[in-house]
Amino acid sequence: MYQLIASDLDGTLLNGEHMVDAYTAETLRTLEERGVQFVIATGRHYLDVMGIRDVLGIRAHLITSNGARIHSPDNELIHAEDIPANLVKELSQAEFSAGTLLNFYLDDAWLIDQHSQYLLDMHQDSGFTYRIEDLANHNGHGVPKILYIGNHAHLLEVESKLRERFGNTLYITFSMPDCLEVMAASVSKGHALQVVLDRLSLKREQCIAFGDGQNDLELLQTAGHPRLMSNANPRLMAALPNVVQIGSNEESGVAKHLRSAFNMTH
């Protein structure tokens, strides 16, 4: 049986309001009592995910900023990788950021170039919030992730510009249709999951993983038992045509699948 459960948050473990539902929290707590270990793997900020982990009520390794940061259940920093400062300064210019909400993640802060009620609403469970700054003039140091938020059609144009300019020198991916994210080239949830597996002396075959976004591709490729949400991004579904699909995040698909897999009473 699975020894490690790895899950994305938005569109996967969280409901449509980006919050934890009681059924899911109860499921994970019961499995923890049985000795199962957990990894939360997300594009969100570490400080944000700490709050969500508290709501879930479990101990879990935290893979955040799509793998640019890894923390132990005791909040020990295991791995950190930033975008080179010169690239951060280039990425923050209007050539790429025009028409988007530009976000920087730092270890101790979330910076944004303009107010967004949508983003405040999305982080209700954790209470994590942003600080508005002039990002085009930021020095570029200590930034693990840059996030462009906007209309999907426009972000596809931004993605094309980024890939043309930077090629494989950056990891560029969508976490959601309206969220285009940029990290250092060697960063991914899959690489981070392997770090955690090695730390716990577990094999891929002992891990089941859940995801819905393009940034979950490497996570699902690394886990021995990948699972796709029925609401997954079409690009991700196309890239993983043989992966088992489960219910949607709106219907607690992860919790229901785990209850069945572990023969839990419903």
Automatic annotation (TrEMBL):
Family matches, as InterPro entries: Cof, HAD-like_sf, HAD-SF_hydro_IIB, HAD_sf
Superkingdom of the organism of origin: Bacteria
A UniProt-annotated Pfam family: Hydrolase_3
Cofactor(s) required, per the database record: Mg(2+)
UniProt KW keywords: Hydrolase, Magnesium, Metal-binding
PROSITE patterns in alphabetical order: COF_1 (PS01228), COF_2 (PS01229)
Molecular function per GO: metal ion binding; phosphatase activity
Classification via NCBIfam families: Cof-subfamily (TIGR00099), HAD-SF-IIB (TIGR01484)
Family according to the record: Belongs to the HAD-like hydrolase superfamily. Cof family.
Matches recorded under PANTHER family: PTHR47267, PYRIDOXAL PHOSPHATE PHOSPHATASE YIGL
Name the record gives this protein: Cof-type HAD-IIB family hydrolase
Organism for this UniProt entry: Iodobacter fluviatilis
